[in-house]
């Protein structure tokens, strides 16, 4: 896995066009790229830097719950969605603290501001955890992934559970070409804190093995893509276990694949590291339904990696 990812990063680093972007950070970008990972060969998690698998597990279980409020994530010490909820809060009339305009960019350039920003965000997260009313109002991110996966609103007001539907179809008609789950709902996009980057995935069964292909419209190569690969590989394992199949491939198809310009030093450092062997995924209680699985039921065996590499997130 690590080789495919490093080849991908090197390709964008060397061939990517410099472009402006929504965050104002700037990127090196290519359009259209695909990677394939044989899940029989090991679990595709990066070994050239430490990837926090606990965060991947809790985020995916959050999606599968149909949840869109960061309170569940914070209860599992997962802060990967904090900035988008915080951004909504500081734009509200209830926020009366220091000016947080463009906090993502300013925090990278101004140490004094970054200290104030971190204090404000920490207080925000504490309020989400201890104040249920505050969490209900400002922990919500709109109808993002979990809502679309489990509670898609149909044209006639019906609620469609795409995950349950695709599981049912896999059990009854595994050769179906309609094993598709979409997170991109044009009606809801304007009210989402962040429109879905991983927009659509499809399952495919052959020789008793379940494969999954993801189409991702936008991919942050250094910070996001390692999470995306591991998350959808884990989802494939969980769905395969649910329907009594082995795992096949995870195919990752990407639209706008980009390296942020403030991640170039970090990706160069990673490209100079030698990969380790891939770990193995282990489900401690394979009899548990995908809707009952807890984070502690999922573990990686023999995960060895180089140390993590920090980089700023573009909001």
Automatic annotation (TrEMBL):
Residues that hold dUMP according to the record: 22, 177-178, 217-220, 228, 258-260
Cell compartments where the protein resides: Cytoplasm
GO BP terms, alphabetized: dTMP biosynthetic process; dTTP biosynthetic process; methylation
Active-site residue list: 197
Entry's Gene Ontology molecular function annotations: thymidylate synthase activity
Keyword Kinase part of the UniProt annotation: no
InterPro entries associated with the record: Thymidate_synth/dCMP_Mease (IPR045097), Thymidate_synth/dCMP_Mease_dom (IPR023451), Thymidate_synth/dCMP_Mease_sf (IPR036926), Thymidylate_synthase (IPR000398), Thymidylate_synthase_AS (IPR020940)
A GO term from the CC aspect: cytosol
Domain of life where this protein originates: Bacteria
PROSITE patterns, per the entry: THYMIDYLATE_SYNTHASE
Signal peptide: none
Function: Catalyzes the reductive methylation of 2'-deoxyuridine-5'-monophosphate (dUMP) to 2'-deoxythymidine-5'-monophosphate (dTMP) while utilizing 5,10-methylenetetrahydrofolate (mTHF) as the methyl donor and reductant in the reaction, yielding dihydrofolate (DHF) as a by-product. This enzymatic reaction provides an intracellular de novo source of dTMP, an essential precursor for DNA biosynthesis.
Quaternary context: Homodimer.
Family: Belongs to the thymidylate synthase family. Bacterial-type ThyA subfamily.
Listed name of the protein: Thymidylate synthase
UniProt source species: Granulicatella balaenopterae
């Amino acid at each position: 896995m690590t080789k495919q990812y490093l080849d991908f990063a090197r390709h964008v680093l060397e061939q990517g066009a410099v472009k402006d972007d929504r965050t104002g950070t700037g990127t090196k970008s290519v359009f259209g790229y695909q990677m394939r990972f044989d899940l029989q060969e090991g679990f595709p998690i990066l070994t050239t830097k430490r990837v926090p698998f606990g965060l991947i597990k809790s985020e995916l279980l959050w999606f599968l719950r149909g949840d869109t409020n960061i309170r569940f994530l914070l209860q599992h010490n997962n802060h990967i969605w904090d900035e988008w909820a915080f951004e909504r809060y500081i734009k509200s009339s209830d926020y009366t603290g220091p000016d947080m305009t463009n906090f993502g960019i300013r925090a990278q350039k101004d140490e004094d501001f970054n200290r104030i920003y971190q204090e404000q965000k920490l207080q925000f997260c504490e309020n989400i955890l201890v104040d249920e009313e505050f969490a209900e109002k400002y922990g919500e991110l709109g109808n993002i992934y979990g809502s679309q996966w489990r509670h898609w609103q149909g044209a006639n007001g019906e609620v469609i559970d795409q995950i349950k539907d695709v599981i049912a179809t896999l059990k009854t008609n595994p050769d179906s070409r309609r094993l598709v789950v979409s997170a991109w709902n044009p009606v809801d996009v304007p009210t989402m804190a962040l429109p879905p980057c991983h927009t659509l995935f499809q399952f495919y069964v052959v020789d008793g093995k379940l494969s999954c292909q993801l189409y991702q419209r936008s991919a942050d190569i250094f910070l996001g893509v390692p999470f995306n690969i591991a998350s959808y590989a884990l989802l494939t394992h969980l769905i395969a276990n649910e329907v009594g199949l082995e795992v096949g491939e995870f195919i990752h198809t990407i639209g706008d694949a980009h390296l942020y310009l403030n991640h170039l030093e970090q990706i160069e450092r990673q490209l100079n590291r030698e990969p380790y062997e891939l770990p193995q995924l282990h489900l401690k209680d394979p009899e548990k339904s995908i809707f009952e699985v807890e984070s502690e039921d999922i573990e990686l065996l023999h995960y060895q990696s180089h140390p993590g590499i920090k980089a700023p997130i573009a909001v």
